[in-house]
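Record 1 of the preview.
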Amino acid sequence: MEHHGQWEAAFTALGVHRHTLRSRIERVRGLLAADLDSAHVRAELLLASSARQEPGGSDRTG
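->
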């Protein structure tokens, strides 16, 4: 999400092969039954993800 749908920037930043990233995204797409090509959906996911983290970056659940 941080790379605004730019596959090359995302897989480079994550340090994974492009096929690995695409496979993971397809898995998430299936689990969420959401259109990850939609900017609105990605914005909702980003907000939800950000809400689960404390300001220092640690996860509240752990």
